[in-house]
Amino acid sequence: MIEVRPRSPVMGAEVRGVDLSVRLNQDSFGEILDAFHRHMLLVFPDQHIDEAQQVAFSRRFGELQIHVLEQYRHPRHPEIYVLSNVDAATGRTTGTHPDKGTLVWHSDLSFVPRPALATALYGIEVPDTGGDTLYADMCAAYDALDEDTKKLLAKMKAVHDINVSRIRAGEAPMSERQRAEAPPVEHPAVRTHPATGRKALYVSRHASHVAGMPRAESDALLARLQAHATSGRFVYRHRWRSRDLVIWDNRCTMHCATPYDPGAERRVMHRTVVKGDSPYN
Ligand code: SIN
């Protein structure tokens, strides 16, 4: 029997009684999808799955994305984005964080025309200290805005650009080819969730600026919205246990990884991303 228990007062639920290594029947998957829409994030503890099984489970939610940054793709399963500080050849830690872009608040793939619906992250090796992931409930953050700000945002679009956000996070700029494949895109600053009908704030660190707004004003507004949405009352902290699979809804959440010591601790995560629709207000 599938058991779904809320994980925190903010968002998220833990799902027990499911083995993700086997294909779920339609009824069981329906229960999971329903819980996903209600809780925004689901934790499946103690899952023993291989790459093909993670891909198969993620595909139940929709078509999978192959990331533009090919350096992170799994060699045999390109749908898997490997976030690891362990050198595959030596088995030792590299001493560097594999992707500093994950350390800033973002919603996956907001920099493409059809951003991510869901992301599934599987913790294969997780640190004893640090390396948690924080999640913000962007529907609650929107609901709590004052009416003037809601009016201001109603028609506003933000420009999302992964190259800008990676440079800001301290990563190397993307190659010319990668830039050409992922040019900046505009999305509404507030989007309507297609399944629940709720409105969600849709700005994050991938948003370089507000379209048509003077830069200083845009920077101040984005910083204000970011500070609002990431205040403790909207945030769930996921403390990883090895073999947790966490799947979250990018249409109504944003997330960021927290730092860990990449020389002393091992962190190996496999990520799959499900494509969504174009956001609308
Ligand atoms: C991500 O940003 O998609 C990954 C987050 C993490 O590594 O905790």
Explain what you see.
The protein has 281 residues and is an alpha+beta fold. The chain has one domain: Clavaminate synthase-like (Double-stranded beta-helix, 4-Layer Sandwich), CATH 3.60.130. It is built from seven helices and 15 strands. The strands form four sheets. A seven-stranded mixed beta sheet has the order 1-2-3-13-5-15-4, covered by helices on one side. The protein has a three-stranded antiparallel beta sheet with strand order 12-6-14. It is globular, with a radius of gyration of 18 Å.
| CATH fold annotation | Double-stranded beta-helix
Q: What's the mean pLDDT score?
A: 96
* CATH first level: Alpha Beta
Low-confidence stretches: none
The appropriate CATH architecture is 4-Layer Sandwich
Query: What name goes with the CATH superfamily?
Result: Clavaminate synthase-like
Radius of gyration: 18 Å
Question: What small ligands are held by the chains?
Answer: succinic acid
Structure summary, number of beta strands: 15
Number of domains: 1
Query: What is the general shape?
Result: globular
- Helicity, in percent? 10-25%
Task: Give the ordered list of helices and strands.
Answer: EEHEHEEEHHEHHEEEEHEEEE
Task: Kindly name the structural category.
Answer: alpha+beta
Q: Main β-sheet, in a few words?
A: 7 strands, mixed
